[in-house]
Amino acid sequence: DDADGRTRFEELIAADDRVEPSDWMPEAYRKTLVRQISQHAHSEVIGMQPEANWIGRAPSLKRKAILMAKVQDEAGHGLYLYSAAQTLGTDRDTMFEQLIAGSAKYSSIFNYLTPTWADMGSIGWLVDGAAICNQVPLCRASYGPYGRAMVRICKEESFHQRQGFEILLSLMAGTPEQRAMAQESVNRWYWPALMMFGPPDDESPNSQQSMAWNIKRLSNDGLRQRFIDMLVPQAEVLGVTLPDPDLRWNEERGHYDHGPLDWDEFHEVLAGRGQANAQRLERRRQAHEDGAWVREAARAYAERMAARREE
Ligand code: ACO
Questions:
Q1: I need a labelling partner for 283 at 20 to 30 A (CA). Which of 71, 254, 257, 266 fits?
Q2: Best of 36, 136, 226, 263 to mutate for ligand 1, by most ligand atoms within 8 A of CB?
Q3: CA-CA distance, 207 to 205, in Å (whole number)?
């Protein structure tokens, strides 16, 4: 019964154990997990587009093969995450419909355009770097299927991060034009990547409860700081400048201080007015329609197999 279920749930959380699909859980816990996991799945799926833009134009066969593998990994991440969300009782069709209708959120970062090859480097280094920073603590999320999905995703994200770093490293060892292309790209991606961690802690409505439930382990600002501290030495290795004049080491805090983020821009992107929101959704909708024959064929095949079993 519910009273027993609630006690057991509270014990699991207090002991920092895992909650599994068959366990009783508060409706609000279920709801926030479906919210976060489905947004995360949508981000992976929409996140294929900015890079798919460069598959046909990658500068060598090797780069092309790597980029294709990476974009396929992202499709896979989306699928594990939709599966994890489904264990909470929301089916994939419903989540897909919400995405296509434009009523579901996905990460702000994927609404930025990728006009240059260096953007493949910046996405790997900064976007996937931020993703790992945010997702490693999620491997310990209290909800079992989510935490377990994150383990594999983080391993693949580490590879993605390194391949991006290596693209930038190659460009920085190249001609003045290539170096300028890398720097210009880092200038565009740096601030949006910092916004991936979400609004400041005092404007984050979900953080407190999600941390109490051991879904989130660290706050948005805490992770953002960790990421900045990690980037500074990496930027030095690359030889790129991070575009923040206020960035400097604070001996007392033991962290880098940084300049203010443009939260108006963040809210504009969330409201659908980023560089590519309309294009991303339109492309997703089109892909879904183009895939209708696959769903129909799968359904027809399943029906035929079921009929055969009845014979
Ligand atoms: N882009 C779009 N929406 C965002 C972003 C962002 N960068 N950051 C926060 N939001 C949304 C939240 O989803 C929430 O919306 P909702 O209440 O309508 O659902 C709202 O802004 C307020 O934010 P928070 O209260 O801080 O939300 P939350 O506690 O869920 O924290 C966070 C946001 C950090 C993104 C969290 O959901 C999370 O860790 N998600 C899993 C990781 C993820 O989704 N990564 C996707 C990008 S990485 C990749 O796919 C490669």
A1: 266
A2: 36
A3: 6
